[in-house]
């Protein structure tokens, strides 16, 4: 499965010639994730031929403007392009208020489902998981609350040679875990609080 990172921008707060404010596209299999959305992100998405409608999840690390000043533009562009699929934004809680105020001030109604999930910078948490990837947020030291995001590609299922299991005391119900390589690790890999290790 492909796992690629495209750097759309890597500059910091002040605009610089030839370098855009922060934004990255992470592609894992058919899933495309946007991480941070600085000013000019849409232009860079066009330049790099990013599949706009493959993005269903956006991750914002913190609320310094160079990491999200491009977001309201992207959200309203999706509206103009008649997006229908839901979009979820993982970000500090205050971003929801900021975006809603921007939409209110410009009398704009978003016609697709827009969800906000507040990140928490006090510990490690699993914020997203599907069959291919697990994404964890974790605290970073900065001037304002900030999280990093760790994208972990999951291992594929192993091929199980049933005849090799003769003589081992393994219940048939455990075969599925063996295929997923979790037979030994299942007890500590996850806990109920969804903390990420
Ligand atoms: Zn910052």
Question: Describe it for me?
Answer:
The protein is of the alpha/beta class. It folds into two domains: 152 residues, Ribonuclease Z/Hydroxyacylglutathione hydrolase-like (Metallo-beta-lactamase, Chain A); 40 residues, no CATH class. Helices cover 19% and strands 27% of the residues. It has five helices and nine strands; from the N terminus they run βββαβαβαββββαα. It has a six-stranded mixed β-sheet. A three-stranded antiparallel β-sheet has the order 7-8-9, with no helix packed on it. The chain is elongated. The relative contact order is 0.12. The structure holds zinc ion.
What would the keywords be for this entry?
single chain; alpha/beta; Metallo-beta-lactamase, Chain A; 6-stranded mixed beta sheet; 3-stranded antiparallel beta sheet; about 25% strand; binds zinc ion
The description of the largest β-sheet is: 6 strands, mixed
Global structural class: alpha/beta
> Which H/E pattern describes the elements?
EEEHEHEHEEEEHH
How would you classify the quaternary structure? single chain
Known CATH architecture of the largest domain: 4-Layer Sandwich
